[in-house]
Amino acid sequence: MAELSAIALVFSLAWTSGRNAGYAIGGSQTIIRLITEKLARLGGRLLLGAKVDKVLTENDAAVGVQLAGRQTIAVIG
User: d(Cα 32, Cα 54) in Å, to the nearest integer?
Assistant: First the structure.
């Protein structure tokens, strides 16, 4: 795997140098913050650290999740 890591580093540096890739100013926390802000604007909420026991489905579509401790969160819409 050491060779793979070196290749990944070389490729990412080459792509960045060629302006085909980049990185977020502020790192990954900036991207996470933007995603959670957009989710909140759309009426959603982010629940961290919860273990999902089961994805609830109806007609082959996800309609909610059942968390550990039996709390159920339904998808609205």
Answer: 25
pLDDT tens for 40-55 read: 999 888 888 889 999 9
Measure the CA–CA gap between 62 and 65, rounded to whole angstroms: 8
**Which residues, 6 or more positions from 18, have their beta carbon under 8 angstroms from its beta carbon?**
none
> Is the pTM higher than 0.90?
no
Same domain for 9 and 41: yes
Range of the domain at 2: 1-45
In sequence order, what are the residues at sequence separation of 6 or more whose Cβ sits closer than 8 angstroms to the Cβ of residue 66?
52, 53, 54, 55, 56, 72
